[in-house]
Every structure is written in structure tokens, then in C-alpha cells.
């Protein structure tokens, strides 16, 4: 089972990035998927999640209205569209397969990708 996150980089505050997470080894459409992030010196935190059918998306309050999670089950790929980026969004972003509830808890995920670094400059 593998998850490969990509799309990170350096962007100015107010800018946008789109992260992708390509998966293999599991029936992607059968799993809740999530994005988490870890800023320097901080613990990893929940960013967003999406159910199998795309009917239920959840967001951390800090990104609500700016980030959009989506999935393409035909391509086995998860996305995170990030708009109006702020310096405090600087972090390594991780995608993961969820196996239980609640989707905001790291304990609900069992396989993680390697992460992609997002750096937001002022």
C-alpha cells in the first residue's frame, strides 16, 4: 500500500497550491481519506477529510473556506486545493487512508504517505 503526496512548494501569502496524493495497493474508493499537516516544532494536526462517496467533507476551522478536499476514485487520487494561503499554513502535508471514525483523529488512519512540504512566504 502506497500514498505519494506531491504538489508542495514555495508560494507567497495569498497564493494557491493544489496538492495531490496518488495511491496504490488498496481499493481507493472504499476508504475515507484525510489530509494532515505538521508545522515545524508542532504536532501533526488534522486538515481535512472526505468520505468514500464524496458526500461528507470536514475541515479544520483554520482552513475552512480556504481549502477544498476532493477525490477522483477512477484515478485513485486525493486532492487538496489550497487558496488564500497564509504563513501559518507552512507545514509538511500528509495524506492517509482512514479505517475508522472520527476522521479528524490521527488514530483513525493506518497508512500514511511521506508528505509534501508547503512553504508560504510573506
Folded structure, characterized:
The chain is mostly beta strands and 122 residues long. The protein has strands spanning 2-6, 9-12, 17-24, 32-38, 45-50, 57-59, 67-72, 77-82, 91-98, 109-112, 116-121. It is globular. It starts with a strand and ends with a strand. The model has no long low-confidence stretch (mean pLDDT 96).
Radius of gyration, taken over Cα atoms and rounded to an integer in Å: 13 Å
Biggest pleated sheet: 7 strands, mixed
Contiguous helical run count: 0
User: How much strand content do the residues show?
Assistant: over 45%
Please tally the β strands and state the result: 11
Distance between the termini: 37 Å
Q: How does the helix and strand content classify structurally?
A: mainly beta
Specify the helix fraction band: under 10%
Order of helices and strands: EEEEEEEEEEE
Low-confidence stretches: none
* Average pLDDT over all residues: 96
Overall shape: globular
Keywords summarizing the entry:
single chain, 122 residues, mainly beta, seven-stranded mixed β-sheet, globular
Topology readout:
Blueprint lengths: L1 E5 L2 E4 L4 E8 L7 E7 L6 E6 L6 E3 L7 E6 L4 E6 L8 E8 L10 E4 L3 E6 L1
Parallel strand pairs: 2-11
Antiparallel strand pairs: 1-3, 3-8, 4-5, 4-9, 5-6, 7-8, 9-10, 9-11
Summarize the structure.
The protein has 122 residues and is mostly beta strands.
Amino acid at each position: 500500500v502506497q500514498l505519494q503526496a506531491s504538489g508542495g512548494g514555495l508560494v507567497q501569502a495569498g497564493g494557491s497550491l493544489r496538492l495531490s496524493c496518488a495511491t496504490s495497493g488498496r481499493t481507493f474508493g472504499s476508504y475515507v481519506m484525510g489530509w494532515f499537516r505538521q508545522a515545524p516544532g508542532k504536532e501533526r494536526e488534522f486538515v481535512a477529510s472526505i468520505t468514500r462517496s464524496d458526500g461528507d467533507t470536514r475541515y479544520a476551522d483554520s482552513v475552512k473556506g480556504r481549502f477544498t478536499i476532493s477525490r477522483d476514485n477512477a484515478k485513485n487520487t486525493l486532492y487538496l486545493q489550497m487558496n488564500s494561503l497564509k504563513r501559518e499554513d507552512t507545514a509538511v502535508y500528509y495524506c492517509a487512508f482512514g479505517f475508522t471514525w472520527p476522521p479528524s483523529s490521527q488514530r483513525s488512519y493506518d497508512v500514511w504517505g511521506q508528505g509534501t512540504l508547503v512553504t508560504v512566504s510573506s
